Amino acid sequence: MSKIVKRFQNMKVAKKLLISFFIILIAAISSIGGMSYQTAKKNFESQIMNSANDNIKILDNLINQTIGAKFNDVTHLAKVIDSSLYQGENQGELKKIFSQYINLHPEIEQVYIAGNDKKFVQEPDIQMPADYDPTTRPWYKDAVSKQGGIIVTEPYKDEINGRIIITIAKQMDDKSGVVGFDLNLDDLLKTTKMINIGKKGYAFILDQNQRIIAHPQEKSGDKAADSWAKRMYQENHGAFTYSSGGSEKEVVFATNVKTGWKIGGTMYASEVVEAAQPVFYNMLIIMVISLIIGGALIYFVTLSITKPLKKLVVTSRKISDGDL
């Protein structure tokens, strides 16, 4: 360091001025360029995160519309149906009501009632094993234990058509049994998989038990990995960063109030850098041009300063030598 200082001190005034001006120019341009690049990165990241939040709101509204309407329907059925409607000859009338409901709601795969006496009425009418006991099924037990509350099961694949299904069920108001229906999530899955966040980012939905409902890279019904999903169950909404497959990802998420499902949006951190690269390259070009133009100006300004100084030095020497 001392050698550099000595060399600088021994330089001519012109060189000192040139170097000083260049250092100031480079520092100023670099600072402005760096700040502009960082600002651009933050703006791009903010845009992508806003896109993720907007899409989360869209999915949240879609879930509320889809599931919320079915909550109203199952509540109505639990109120108007009692044990007299599914005993003996009255089953035909009940099946007619169920059939009309399915015709009006093609997303419903099946509607059924399970009585406390193990009586089971369903539409469409599928042949069940002779020893089938609906009161042993999880949806029945959960609905009874909820005592009038609505339950939503984990997503599962229908064995007949392969669709992803959830069961919505509620204990009947007279407590004689449980009414429920199977809802396919085709529309919700399609909408979720159509969403793009940035270029490579995506949206996803998990149920209240960390099971995957919709995810473009994972299988519906599987449990989501703790490495990224567990953090979403520690609070109702938020954001975090994690690494997967050598890529850093950022996740924003929220919780649907009706179901407890987690709705998330994932973006790749590398996309922010990629999006800001044109700004970085433009700044480099501007810096080079500025250095060339600034360097030329500094050179001529330095000459305009040093030339008179040189003349003054020459004149001073002549005077000191007695040449007046």
From TrEMBL:
InterPro entries: dCache_1, Sensor-like_sf, Tar_rcpt_lig-bd. One of its GO terms (cellular component) is plasma membrane. It is found in: Cell membrane. It is a multi-pass membrane protein. One of its GO terms (biological process) is chemotaxis. SUPFAM superfamilies: Sensory domain-like. It comes from the Bacteria. Its main location: membrane. The keyword Cytoplasm does not apply. Keywords: Cell membrane, Chemotaxis, Membrane, Methylation, Transducer, Transmembrane, Transmembrane helix. The keyword Cytoplasm does not apply. The chain crosses the membrane at residues 279-301. Residues 33-152 form the Chemotaxis methyl-accepting receptor Tar-related ligand-binding domain. This is Chemotaxis protein. The lineage of its organism: Bacteria, Bacillati, Bacillota, Bacilli, Bacillales.
